Amino acid sequence: MICSKCGKETDDMLSVCEHCGEPKDNNAVLLKKTDDSPTVLIENEKSYDEENTILLEEDEDDGRFISGVLDADQSIKTASDDKFFANNDYVPSASDENKNRRNTFNDNDSTMSFDAIDGIEYIEDEDPTNEKLVSEETESVSEEKSEKNGKNQKTPKLSFLRTFTAVLLSAVTVIFMLVFNSALCIKLGMSGNIVRNSVNQLDPKTLLSSEFSGNELSDTLFNSLGFADTAGGLATPNSFRTYMMKSDFISYIGRNADNYINYIIDGKGKDPSVTAEDFVSDFIKANNRASIETFEYKMTEDDYQLMQRNLEKDNFDSALSIPEWSSKINFNLKNAKYLFSYITIAVFFLAAVVMFIWTGIAADGKAKHITGFYSRILKTAGSITVITGALIIIGSAVAYAFTNNAVFYVISHTFITFSLIVLCVGIAEFILGLIFRTINKNIINTEQNL
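and the corresponding structure tokens:
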């Protein structure tokens, strides 16, 4: 140890300098000077804890100071080795005292700062373990925030009111879709010319042998006309069947079907209702040649009058009267042409589009919910339309196979074009619904992966 008065080395164990007898100062202790490092004086302020000192010694390898730990309220003061050892009477000045006070440690700081000490380098304590722990905690917090943000980005569930409104609008939309489908398919597949050509493809023998009103169609017509009392009493049910086969009754049915459909759907022509008088005049008289060939008998006016009266008794007029049909359904079929006009069809389509938009708004405008509702609407409307078309084609054929009813036979053949159009429209809507369903699944999977 070096004496602060004479500057000579003295024994550490002595209380006074062995050279000059100077007592050792408890307030200042000189540290042993190394070969290349400056001596550092560490002085405790009298107002602070006098028992705590610190040794700062420069490392010979890299010139950096190794520091210990000081308690709170300690101060550090240094002196260069040249100045200190050149003057053995060195006493800290007032400026040094102020500097010491400025360089005191903050009681609230858990680390030491040497920024105020001139000429001293220091190394901040680096704890790899703590840094790794902090890094891991930061990454964990970041992942939690990312997960939370991902959850926040997911589309929330619809409220009960919105769900109920969307479901109600979806049902109305399906109704508009079905009305649009029906009007469009009837307009395209039920024209008079199409039906007439389909009827002309019917087999006369099969039609006459089909059941109608509890009997074969041929026998029903024979009884309704009272044909046994005509043709000089020569007609029988079997001979009447032959008579009908030689007549143009298939063409007659096709012509009248064309007139009915053109009047109801397109509003063309006058009232096509067929009366008993019209039937006798337009069919029986027109096929007098068939009567001669079959019965070798030419019909007389009395025969025609008798058949007309018999048909009227059998309510033939009301059976084929459009006014009677209108009365039964409480709708004037004369105005049906407005329902099947292209303008009305366009209105039905626009109404369906508007309902789609409202359904999307009720679904909170979220793609996830919109695609889900659109998929259900299109698949429902498409399914019903496909089932309708299948029932007309397949159902009528199956029904005819089991019942042998003439009506099912006519429907299965005359409505085939209409049924095919219905199937195409229904399948197209169902496929479009599946596309929306695929989009909906992709949206859901994307949200789950976030």
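(Above: one complete record from the training split.) Residues 367-403 form the longest helix (37 residues).
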